[in-house]
Write a structure and sequence with these properties.
Length: 305
Amino acid sequence: MSEEMRDQRDELVKRIERHTGRDGVHKTAIPSLYFFRNSNLTRPAHRVYNPSLCFIAQGLKEVLLAQERFEYGPTNYLISSMNLPVISQVIKASPHIPYLSFRLEFSQSQILEVINDSAVQIASKENAKRALFVGKIESSILDAILRLTRLLDNPKDIPFLAPIYTKEILYRLLQGQYGPALAQIAMEGSSTSRIRDAIEQIINNCNTLLRIEELAETANMSISTFHRHFKEVTAMSPIQFQKQLRLQKARRLLLSESADAAEVAFRVGYESASQFSREYARMFGAPPRADIKRLKEKYDHVLDA
């Protein structure tokens, strides 16, 4: 990392520290911009990544997409170009040098706007690409990120300048190594965009029986072609994708409500409570009751600290 980039990163560290102060997720005054802080290593967390750019100013993180492992830190950025169920874990942090990161969410329409308004050349037809990737951070991207975060000190400028700086960040990313992969989510008719439509259908109907024929029709593909492209984009099959969504939703329901595991199993689309319990334990490391007890004890400990 060059001296200029170290200075940029150091400034971002100070700004994130100033706008967080305590561990957790911090929504900022800039729409779709979040800061994260952790003073300790974390346990693996199951969540769905929205389309977003993530940059770690300090620390290291590991992200698992199915069986694929991505590790990134201050010399990289991570992009999720679609909604993807992942497992993430902070693997480098301490009270003296906390994990600090930045996440900027974006939409398909924002990507398309940048493509239409700029001279970025994107191939209209590309094979489906993985929707999660790690790239090497560049000074031009860091510079745009810094100008966006500086707006937090001048809130009156946010409505006008934040969209401009966000657009510049996306423009810089589209010019980079993974620009074509990022662009494909916005290119109507591309294999990636058609898989995106199928993913949205699964997310919106994750409690119902999954019919591959309907998903393939949504993507305007044969069943075999749909399976191949879906796995290329998400690293998993449609059935595995839906299962992760269901189990994550079940865990949230068990944490927030007093319903028992069997009731929640049926609510998220399982016909067999025993199958739900087995798959839940396989994903989260313990059966529903034991897992939720452990999570609640952890949260109570944090609140008491």
